[in-house]
Amino acid sequence: MPTLSSRAGRATLGLLMLTLSALAVVVAATSTPVRAADPVTVLTSSFEDGTGQGWARRGTVELVENSTAVAHAGTRSLLTSGRTASWNGPSRDLLTTVTRGTRYTYSVWARAAAGAGSVQLRMSVERRWQGTASYEQVVNSTTVTDGGWTQLTGGYTLANDADFFAVYVETVSGTASFHIDDFSLSYLPPSPIQTDIPSLKTVFANDFPIGAAVGRPQLLAERGQLLAKHFNSVTAGNAMKWDATEPTEGVFNYTDADAIVAFARANGMKVRGHTFVWHNQTPAWVFNDANGQPMTATPANKTLLLARLEAHIRAVGGRYAADVSAWDVVNEVIDENQSDGLRRSTWYTITGLDYIRTAFRVARQVAPNAKLFINDYNTNVQAKRDKLYNLVASLKAEGVPIDGVGHQQHGNISWPTGAETDSMIATFIPLGVEQQITEMDTSIYTSSSESFTTPPADRLASQAARYKAWFDVYRKYKANITSVTLWGLADDETWLDSYPVSRKDFPLLFDVQLQAKPAYWAVIGAASPTATGPASPSPSPSRSPSPSPSVSPSASASPSPSASRSPSASPSPSVSPSPSGSGSPVSCRVKYTVTNQWNSGFQGDVVVTNTGPAAVNGWALRWTFANGQVVNQSWSSVYAQSGANVTITNAAWNGTIGANGGTASFGFLSSWSGTNTAPAAFTLNGNACALG
Predict the structure, then answer these.
(1) 580, part of any domain
(2) Residues 119-145: pLDDT tens digits?
């Protein structure tokens, strides 16, 4: 597609492409997966000519200038200094450079300025259309230092009309100076989809609808063709959430949600609505009282919050009443570590269970033909699903109109097993509710320290086995399961690229070139044309795995000048064994990293290394926060906090840390306000640990 430089031309093209993508476009058949084309680079910035090469400041006071102080390659870089806000930074206009509907790779090398130490940077884009600005994150928060260069790399597709579009680099917090160098913007020429392979929706026609969670980019060109060929259900991955539809009270934005619904109509697809109520991706104004201050638990605030909830559901649910067949009415309300099993979200602390009752009651009124679901993660873990079961049973006994339970099923190549998935489904059958798999994907990683630019063959084989094991269970219970949805369309764009760390993941059935992977062939029960071994390898024997965090994905937006919205982290299964200790003094080292931070919270990742000669069997890591931070979730661990003192104990499967360099890792989400100083000291089973 040619690049358009005029605003009118871009707008016209946007309407044309959406119209075409909403139709069943016929493409030339291809018998086998195509070879990936070489990337095409459309823009580079090396700064070697002594200028800013089109980069300019976003604010009004910071200085963006060519520098010879340090360079990634050559002798020059671009230095940003004199910043007064975190969103101040270098920006490059790309409106006439990018083509709508093409996914570009954005890459830049970054380094903190001399004396700045360690800095959290991220790369984002700003899009404006007719006076309204939108901000989306391309590269998650990444630590850079003044001692070396770090590459920030991510992908983004401009899918909406724009009369301004630019990429920029900013800090997560603070105003430290930093350098960038060797920026590049490139894309892979699109490959035709495979039109002569079985469509997933046909393979599962007698079992259940098969869906994908999408955004507007997945409606365009080859991705739109892939979506229409294989799926008969779509979920609006982010476009129907509260922050997308009602960012300001009473002011609604349906642009992306309308586009997804229009595509579904044109292609005969069901639509799943996601989600009315969630503790994340809810604008701050929702939880402010009548005076604009954060709510406390008072009768007046309860009345106000429930009124806002009702008004929101009536507006959004009413708009899509004729199109949405199922709604995730409430999302992730269970915390199995609480005695009553209920997450202590602001919704709960202000209203108790009445927010759930209100949400389902109003949803039934405005969308009487839609099935209403309560949706959660880690329901394959007994402690979690039992608490969810009890809640659903109790609410249904009250007459709350809950039609079904949604299982997210975010896993990896080691977890969960088919048996755990079987128990997940079987548990809820006595309730007489529908069940749906709502957000399925399978990471190729089992720890945060792994990273591949190309997925190894053995990982793809293990992934295929995991998918097959799950789908075997789904088919077994097809009388109870009324929909199965993957969280994404293809590996070219997945939320797992930025969570739990920034790296390329490959969690879906189609690869970055939209070609069928071994997992696809395993799921449909056929041999891949290029396979050299069995199409459906058996899963490895069940053992205690090291699961990646099971997370409910969200938009990775980073509006400036305010900080980035929170990712919706949801912990992996955690059991709380008491640390037994190793019977001798422990020698240890702790690496504590803030991997993402936003205006009210942050994500921390911790690696504990046993530097001693004896294994540690059962462990407890303790530290003290200096600035009032409060942990509210953890994964691969069990957390407890008393005042400023935090204790993290091992999960059931990672209680042993091997001698002489063995490690255990975990992550957590915490609130913060104003300052977020890292803990100054850690102890492992009572023994002081070194840092770093």
Answers:
(1) no
(2) 999 999 999 999 889 999 999 889 999
Check whether residue 109 and residue 215 sit in a common domain.
no
Return the axis-axis angle of helices 457-476 and 418-428, rounded to nearest 10°: 30
Decide: 17 and 100 in contact? Cβ < 8 Å: yes
Q: Is 376 a catalytic residue?
A: yes
What string of H, E and C letters represents the secondary structure of 588-646?
Answer: EEEEEEEEEECCCEEEEEEEEEECCCCCEECCEEEEECCCCCEEEEEECEEEEEECCEE
Name the burial class of residue 207, with classes exposed (0-12), middle (13-18) and buried (19+) by CB atoms within 10 angstroms of its CB.
middle
Length of the chain in terms of residues written: 692
Range of the domain at 339: 209-524
Going by C-beta distance under 8 Å and a sequence separation of 6 or more, which residues neighbour residue 319? 254
CATH code at position 79: 2.60.120.260
Backbone angles phi, psi at 86, to 5 degrees: -65, -30
| Catalytic hit among 246, 336, 420, 439 | 439
pLDDT in tens, 603-652: 788 989 999 999 998 899 999 999 888 887 777 788 888 888 999 988 76
Q: Looking at the 3D structure of the chain, how many domains does it have? A: 3
Answering whether pTM is above 0.85, one says no
- 489 near 212, Cβ under 8 Å? yes
Domain final residue pick, 187, 221, 240: 187
Decide if 439 is catalytic: yes
Residue type, 685: N
Q: What Cα–Cα distance (Å) separates residue 267 from each residue in 227, 228, 236?
A: 9, 6, 15
Rounded average pLDDT over 178-194: 95
Nearest to 224 by CA among 39, 519, 27, 29: 27
Question: Does residue 247 share a domain with residue 169?
Answer: no
Among this protein's residues, is 246 annotated catalytic?
A: no
Same domain, 296 and 417: yes
Residue of 328, 336, 376, 441 with catalytic role: 376
pLDDT score for 559:
33
8 Å CB contact between 273 and 211: no
The domain that holds 464 is classified in CATH as 3.20.20.80
Which of the following is catalytic: 243, 246, 332, 420? 332
Is 626 within a domain? yes
Taking only the tens place, the pLDDT of each residue in 376-429 is 999 999 999 999 999 999 999 999 999 999 999 999 999 999 999 999 999 999
Same domain, 158 and 273: no
In a domain, 195, yes or no: no
For residue 570, the number of C-alpha atoms closer than 13 Å in the C-beta half-sphere is 30
- Going across the sheet that includes 690-691, the strands are 630-635, 662-671, 601-610, 588-597, 690-691
Question: Is residue 478 included in any domain, yes or no?
Answer: yes
